[in-house]
Every structure is written in C-alpha cells, then in structure tokens.
## 1
Amino acid sequence: MKRNRNWFLVFAGSLMLSLGIAGCSDHSLEPNEGLPPDGVTNETEAMKYYATADEFVANEDQASSDQALDPVLPIDIADGPIIPVSWGRFVEDVNITTTASIQTGDSLATVQVDKDVSGVFRILAKRSEDDTTTFLVEKPFSDHSVRNVIFRRVGNEANRFWLNWIPVSTSLVAGKTVTPPVDQDVNLTELQLVKPNGETITITDPTETYLRYRWRNLRHSIARSDVPEMSIGETFTVKATIVSTSSETDLLALRYGVSPTTKRRVPMAVLSETDNGDGTYTRVYEVTGDVFHHPGFFHATVVAMSSKTLNDDDIASYSVNWWGMPYRVL
C-alpha cells in the first residue's frame, strides 16, 4: 500500500497548491498522513470531507459571486423602470450537505455536494439617463446548487482510512434560484465549450456530465471527457441555450479566471431568439474569451438571469440559473 499512500500525498500537495491559487488558503484542509482530518472517523466521512475540499468544488462559489459592484456593459441594458449602472451578486452564506454512496464492487463512490446559497443581489441604478444621482437596489436571494464528485479506492488500510479514496472526476455544477417568479423562470438547456484546439464539449445535463482529472492517470468508466486544459494566451468560445418564460430578453454572462487577483465577467451576445408558442422562449448566446490569468484550477460559469433581475427595482424580481465547468490553466 506504500505506492497508493505516496500517490495520495502527491494529490494532497497539488490540492493545497490549487486552493491557494484559486483563492482559498484554509490550511486546515490539508490532509495529514499520520492523522485524519478533524472530525473524520471513517472512510465515508473522509470522502465527504475531501469532496468539499476538492480544488474544483472549493472555488465554485467564488466563480458565481462578486466582491464589488462591476459596471454594466451596454449589452446588458434593457428597457425597464431603472437603468442599472453597476451590479454584483454577493454570497453571504453557503450551507453544504454531502451524501456519499459506494458503488457495487467497492472501487468507485459518488459524493453529491448540495449547497444552499443565500445573499444579496445589489444594483446601483438611476431612473433616467439624465440623472446625476444613483440609488442602491438590494434583492435578497436564495439559490441551490448541486454537483457530484467521483472517488476511486486506492487503498484499504483500516488504520489510515482517510487515505483510501481519492477524487478522480467531477460533474459540472448546476445552480438555480429556489423559487423564481413564474414569468421569469430561466433554464439553461445546453452549454458548449469550444476549446482552443477546436474540440467541442457539449453539456445538456450538468450533474450527469463527468470530467476526468486526466493528470491523476486513474481511468474509470464514468468520466465522459477530461477536464479542459488551456494555456495562457489561448482563446475559447462558449455557447449557451436557454428556455425562459420571460418575454423580455434574458441576460447571460460568463464568469471565469476567478482568484484573489483576477476575475473576468463578460456579457454573452444573443445569436437567436424563438417564440415557442407555449409561453416560453428559446434563446441562444455566445461569447469568446481569452485565457489571461495565471496557471491553476478555475471555474468557467455561465450565469443566466431574467431581464427584470437587473432592470427592475422590485426586490422579488430575481431569477438566476448557472452552470459551472471546471478547467485548468497550464
């Protein structure tokens, strides 16, 4: 079992390095070969612990949250009772629930990570273009996200049970407002990432789309593809399709490159819009981004929001849906 234990320590080192790069520096998460993490008393609890400490799970909240009010770009402005000047989604509390299940054969396990995310959506706005003063709109929100992390057994030592499983792949994360207004229900239905080499990854069910941690060299049958890897200076394209109950064109943004020193939030342009004739609308969006940040582990998150979320001062007008895809910058 010495080989398996050493492999886990390599994983642990890369985990802590990535957490530091991605903006999390809680060294209490660091595994110790001689001692289990605090409060962990069995293999199942160890998997739950590492599922939430995993590099891609740990930074997903940062990828959908803001630290300041960012200016609104012209593409985001729509007709409404307010004219937004800047906005930000501020996460204040995240309650995490983990559920572990070991598959038949005792070689693979799945840990589902559910998060109840609450906070305040803030908009700095004015009533007309001629106004010289602004006011703040605050909309409390309650969202929920889910993702799955796949573990593989690499050991079977009773005295070092917390080293017996390591994460080898992750699903995408799917998040949504718990109770959106009926006329503002926005649902992502397809996401495409066109990588710099032209390869396209298409997702229609984020929590059932698994990306393998290729650099760990542990193959298994669940992963559909590898976690995308890109180099600084390369460009990529993201396309998204939504179905919405809003007659007003919804707003989509791509968040990526989030760390303590970098962040990018860019609006996605509407490519097409179709009235489905049943009170819903299908809209397709696209954006091209560049890999501008440093090497490390990151999330690219597509956030879809109803038009009234940004362009209405009614605090009940808030509806957001997001899918997050992990990626690695080499």
Note: DSSP finds five helices and 18 strands in the chain.
## 2
Amino acid sequence: MDKVNVGLRSPEALNLDGHFNFRDDVFVHDKKARVKLLKFIKKNDEDICWILGDSFMEFNLNYVQHYLNIYNKKAIFMSLGGSSVYYSYMRFLNIENDIKPYHTMLVGISSAQRHFFNHYHVHGFASVNTARKRKPTKRFMEAVQLYYEELFDFDENYNTINAVVDSFKRRAESRTKHTVFIPTLTKYEALDNEPPLYHTVMNKWYKSNHKGKRPPLTPNHWIDDKEFTKSFLKHYNSKFENWKKESI
C-alpha cells in the first residue's frame, strides 16, 4: 500500500478524483443529485463500487483506496462519519434498485449505540453529529438525555440492531454477491460475530507503543504504520476476493 497523507481534514484535500462523493447528508430523492448519480453510474457501470457506513468508510485515503486500485473500481461514497447502522441501511434502501449484480459494495456496520433521529446522529447522552449545518436545540438535547436515562436498554437495542443488520446483509447480497461487510465498532450475531475492525486490528496500535503517544491517523482512522498495514491486509484481504470482476 502506498503511504497515505496524514492530517487532511477538508473535502477539497481528499483524494476523490474519479469517484462520486455523496458524503453530504443528501438522499438520492434529491433530483439534481439523482441526475448526477445516474450519469456517473452510466459512465462507469461495469466498475461501480457502492460504499456505505461510518467514518471508517468515509474517505478513500486508506485501505479503501488500496482495494479500489487493486480491483479497478469507481466508488460511490454514501458513507458518513458518526452515522448509525440504521442510517446506512436507509441509504442502501435509497439506491437498492440501482445496484446491479456485477457491481461491488463495501459496508461498514457501526456501533449499536448510535441512533439516527431525523437529521441527527446521537452517540450516548450528549454527543450529536450532523452533516447538515444546524445545531440541535437545548430542548432536543434534553429529550435525548431523558431517552437514554429512562428508555434506553442496551440488550433490547442490540437485538433490534441485529435484526437491521441481518436484513441489510441479506438484501445487499441479493443485489450483488460482490459485497463486503465489515463491523467497525460492535460485534453482531448477524455478521457471525466477526470481531470489529477497530478491536481486531486497530486497538493494538491505537493504544500505541510510541512512547505513550497515539500514532498518526488519517481522517478515517487509518494508522500510518507499516506493521499496522501488514496486519490489516492479513486479516481482511480474503474478504475482498469476492470483488473479482465477472463477465457481464
């Protein structure tokens, strides 16, 4: 894998040339976005790769670009940092009918404790992430806190999300068998309890042996370290073999 640049934060600085960037919180019922998307699909149809998930899938500066290069794919990024499993599933349902059997797909399944409420992605009591430029009201935050204090039950939530993941996986794989699912932060029975990306490969490096300092990270958490790269590829290479191109 080529060395990636560290410290890039703005969309303009990201290497998105040749790919379709749907990062913003815009669903494809938006007419202008829909037209652009269909033009991109028509131009790159045989090489399309749909990418959904949280920040581990949001940019192509790391392993994503590595596999796009190997298999000569043109990505449609519909991932969003901090987003929930449910949000990614809704994104998938928006584009489900546009996915063809010879397309490829990469899906990052995020934490079970993230929730999608209208325009807001909520992580726990006080952390709210939104791609749209709007701030949650004080009343909204009070309601969120009350929800977690009085109504939230982790076991119930985990069972519900497992059902979503199971449906997500079955429907995605029915559209194209060239689909890779990677849990990013939470284990899911629907994914055969495969250890998440972060805990499987990253945690060892993220705690770091660099004199107590955390190693440098790219925008979507890639650790710029040769040994980390080697470990990641060893664990995940086999999953991407189903991206191999088939005759149309």
Note: The first strand starts at residue 20 and ends at 21.
## 3
Amino acid sequence: MAGRVGNFGLHVGEHQLCLAYQEQQGRVTTLAQPALMALLAQEALSESRFADEGVRYKGQRLLIGEMARQAQEWPAVRQALASCGRLDVHLALAEFALGQILHEALGPALEPAQLCVYSISAPPISPQNGQQHAFHSTILADLIRKLGYLPYPLEEGKALVVATAGNSETSTLALSFGEREINGCLSYQGIVGIDFSMDLGGDAVDQQVANALGLELAQARAIRENCRSIQVPQRREEEALAVFSHQLLGEVLARFKAFLIERGAPLFGGPIDLVWGGSWRTPDDFGLLLRREMEQAEIPIPLGQVLQTMSRETLVARGCLQVAQTLAEDRHLVAGINLR
C-alpha cells in the first residue's frame, strides 16, 4: 500500500473485499481482492506449494484471500472452501480471517484520525435469516479500530448513490447486487429518500445455473463473469444464466413494488435514473434488462435512463471513500467519530 494517503472506503462482500483510497499524486485507486478462507490440517498442504504459507489458527493452517483462491486446485482446499470459505459463516473463524485480510489490505493507520468508511446493510424490507454480514456492524468496526483507523458505517445503497450521482441533482434508484443480499437506495436530487435491503442475491442464480447444467458452482460463476450480453445469450449456458437472472429480478421487483405500495410511493417531479453495481458481477447490458423488467412489473416510479458506470464492483467502496473525504474536511465530525 505504498504511496497511499488519507482515508479509506471499504466494502466487504461474501467472497471479496473492495477498497478505495487516494494516492499521493491525488489519484483515487480502487481494488478488489478475494475475501475467502480455507482452514486445513497441516498434512493437507504438505506436498503443495502452500505448505509453508498462511497463518496458524488453533493448530491448523488458515489460507486467506488470494492465497485461498489460488489453492483451490488442491482437493483438500476445495473441500474446505465449500464448507467454510465465505466470510459470512463460522463467525469466530471469520473474525480472525477478516482481521488478517484487513491488515494485509489496509495496513496500520499512518496518522491520527484516519477514517475508514465501511459499507453496511440497510434495514430489510423482507424477513431475513440473520446470517448475512453478521460481523459488519460490530466486529468489522472493532477490527478497523484495532488497525488505528476511525470506523464509520455507511449503508451500501447510499454509498452507491454517492459514487454515481450523489453530488448532482439527479434522482436515482441505486441497486447493489451481492452474492446473498441486495441493497438499494432511492434518492431525489441527491437526497436519500428510501434505503432498504433484501435477502436475495446472485448466489441463487449461480447455484441454479450449476444445478441445471450439471456444473460446479465455480464453473457457473465463470459463465456469468465471462458473459458479454445477458439479453442476447450466445450459447446454452448463457441462456440458462438469462433465465434464472430473469427469475431473480422478478422476485426482487415484486418485493420492491409491494414495499413502495405499503409505505406509499414517493412523488417525483422527474424521471428516476437507474444505476447498479456490487460484487455480483454482471454483463454491461444487465441494467437494460433490469429497466425492462421494472417497466413490465409496473413499478410506481417514473423511470429515466440507465447510468453506465465503470468498475461497478468497486463503486460502493468508492462511494465510501467520498464520504470519508467529506467527513475529514470537518474536524468536529471527526472528533465525534473518535468518541464512539
């Protein structure tokens, strides 16, 4: 992390960590890296190039991040990742692993009152199982604080709005698609009006594609990540992706429409532009599919254009960084954070 200055924006998803920071030259840099773990007995790695890698956890070897991803070629690691690879399960182990990953990604704070704004889930609009992001609000803040930073939580949908249209008069519906959860924010001319989350995510689509085609989950993810057009599939595998993505969006929009009707749809003086991002990577025309599905579902808000953005998987982290930089300009706000 040589050359970085100032504050951080952080988004920890189920399978990866995204980070945004400013370099000494003033350029904002974003990165995405695996947030995975594999806990193995020492003998499982004895003949691999990872025999001396990783860290110890209660007498066993723990591979984390990029190392865990690269080691998936070994059967013992694949099995471990299948049982405890994500960071939203096995809370005590996840806390330890996430602490190691954050230490590698951020490093210790270089100066007092250095902020790390991190994304959290918004209140749910439907029943949730309580397992997603279990470590975010408390454990993640503690881990950030242990590195010397001032932690500050920001709802994921709000971060997406800030990163794309937060400083303009644009009215936006922002949706952040994760592997197991979707966060959203409806803003009017940059002012947040509705913030929400759902216990739906892209993992369900990947699993359905894998089941339908008789593939491993990693192969189904590769089909999605390499697909160039979800609206014009080029082969049978991509057709399966389109079918199950359509089903996911149907459920998402049905819940969102019911939520708006129940609380009373807000009145807007102009069209609402649509932007999407998140760690569940999708083809560039996914937004057009989403807008078409919203029209067919008759969502009670006036729809505008689809905002095309680059590096959508790191947009939440970039929005968190922008909020961190805004907060840092007000010393009284920073002092208030320090007292938390």
Note: The chain has eleven helices and 13 strands.
## 4
Amino acid sequence: MEREQAIEISRNARNILIVKTNLLGDTLNFLPVANFFRKFASSARISWLVSRPGYPVVSELADVDEILLLEDGFLYDYGNLLRTSAWLRKKKFDLLVTSFQEECFLINLLALMSRAPVRVGYNLRNRGWFFNIVVPKGEAERRVELNAQIIKTFGGGEIGDYLYVPRADAAGAKQFAARLAGLGVKENGLCVLHLFSPKPTRSWRIEHADELIKRLQSESGLTPVLIGSEAEVGKWGEEKKSLGLINLAGKLSILELFYLLKQARLFIGIDSFPLQLTEFASTKAIALFGSTEISKALVPAATVVKAEVECAPCWPEKQVCDRDFICWRKLTPDLILGEAKKLLG
C-alpha cells in the first residue's frame, strides 16, 4: 500500500488503536498523538492499549472510547502475544499507531499480527517493515516531539496545538481551587516541590530541604507545596508543616496534580512524571539532576539545574556511589533559588 493511500484510508478510519504501553511519563508524552487523531478522524472510535503502569494516565487524562489493558508479563510471553493478537483481530481496527518508544519486538509483532490495514510506527532496530507508514525521527530531541513526528506525517500542526489534557475543565479546576482554599492555600504564589525518590540516584538531599522551604517564602514570596508518594515523604511533610509547607503527598489524583501545576507559579523537582506534566500545564519548571545523565529526550521545556562534579553523570554504569552522592549534596538551595529568581523575573 502506498503511503498517500494509507494516509487517506486513515482519514476515513472508523476504528483506531493506539498502542502505548510504557510508564506514566512515556504514556503522557504520547497524549498529543491521541489528541490529534481525535480531530484528524473525528468520527472514529479510539481505543488505547496500555500496560498497568501507564493505565492511570489514559484513564484520567486521555479522551478515548475504550481502554484495553495489556496482560501483566506480556513482554515475556509468546502465549499472551497469540491471545492478544487474536483478540485485536476480532475488533477489526483499520488504523494502528505506535510510539517512538515502542521498540519491544513483541509489541511490534503484535502490531503486525493485528492485521490492521494501516500500521504506523518508527524504524527502530530495523523493524520498519512491521509498518506501512514509517515515521521519520527528524530533528526532534525531546520525547514529546519525537512522538509528534506522527502528527507531522499526517499533515498536523505544531506540537503545541495538541499539548492539552482533554478531561481537564474549568469546573474541575474551580473545584480543586476550592479544595486548596479549604486547606488555607491561596491559588497564586504556589511553588510545587517534588524533591525525593526512593532511588538515591534520582533523589535530592533531604538535609537541604528546610533551607529551601524557608527561602522560597522569604525571598520569593512563594508558598511551597509538597507532592510525591506518601510512603516516601508523607511523614516528613507532616513534620514540616510548621515551616509553612503544604503537604499534599499521596493526596492527589493525576488530574488534580494537573490542576495544581496549572495554578502554580513554579515547579521544582527531580526527573519524574510531575516534571513531564508541567509542559502540559504550561508551568515554569526547574529540573534537578544529580548522578543521572541529562537526556533532552526525557526532559520537557524546563530549566535544568545540576552541580558541576567531575564524577557525574555516572549512573547506570556505576551502581554504587563511593562519594555519598556528592553530585546531589552540592546541588544547593543557592543554585536552585538563583534559577528560580531568573524564571520568575
């Protein structure tokens, strides 16, 4: 099938399948593609095949007609491949779209075995023959832009036109603002903090946090709001309420997190799903990096702050740090606040 013929068939598609199975951030960065196809083939039914880790993004943030949950362990089980491909064939999808990150052989094979007449994907690991519309990587670097090459292939506009959360609305934002008000939090002047991770390679140093909280208030007039896993920082956040910290760790849905970021003046945090979401919320963001390599494909339009240390980045090549993560210890509040003042003007 010729490329132009395949694109024309896609425009008249009645049943579209989006295959995006990764973690939260990866799934989020494919959302603009789903938003595009909702407009491109306006009368089509859109289904999304997702794995359990990425399910919350699709269920809360994606405007799709059906969510298909991939079986746990699919990537290691050819029996699951046969069952799932037979299941997809019965649904008779006429357009199947995969992302730049779907380089797993079984996922590519599943796309082929679905027998969708039009299959869209990238030529990763020389597997372009799985697809009859092969999308070029182009000059894109950031992950959301890599996926957006699909949009350009089908004649769509700039990625910014599709960076939105379909389920977010004014009523929901107003309801969340009322919830914040009930906690004594004013909407303007919020600084969202996502600082810690159970993985030491990705976590900022907790001993710096008191100083950062105090100076955000005294020097920038911002109210710090803590987010993250309750298991990671819940107790610590409760202890720091006396400093004026608002602790919302473990208390937000993904959609509520979007509303919070939308209302915030600034986000400061580690490389994580909330950092990825700042791009959709148009929130000014500071991304903190220590021992991990800074990849433009992973980081959204944020200001990157890191300490200049000879041994960093070292992970994942080096699994154990013999310098007590000096890269994180030297990433001081001074460095962070200096960038914050520039961003806030």
Note: Residues 139 and 146 are 8 Å apart (CA to CA).
